[in-house]
Task: structure prediction
Amino acid sequence: MAPTFRAGDRLLVRSGGRAIRPGDVVVVAAMNGRPEIVKRVYSMGPNPTRPDNPVDVRGDNPEHSTDSRTFGSIPRSSIVGRVVRRY
Result:
C-alpha cells in the first residue's frame, strides 16, 4: 500500500462498527496461500451489508499492486476489518 503505508508500519484495525464504504482502507483475509493484505475499497456491489456482496479492492500504487484487477472481486465476508490508524 505504498505510498500510504510502509513496511513495518503498525495498523489498528477495527472489525464491526460502521459499514465499509469505497475509499476505506481494509485488511483482506488470507487467500490462495497468501497472507492477509491491506487494500483500499474501490467499489462495492448493490448490497453492502450482505456477506456475499462483491467488493473491488485496489492498492494505492497501481503499477506494483496485486488487487482486484488481478484476482477479481472478493466477497464482503473476506474483509477482516477497517484500518483506523497507523502508528
In short: Strands lie at 11-14, 25-28, 37-44, 54-58, 74-75, 79-86. Residues 11-86 form a domain with the Umud Fragment, subunit A fold (CATH 2.10.109.10). The helical segments are 68-71.
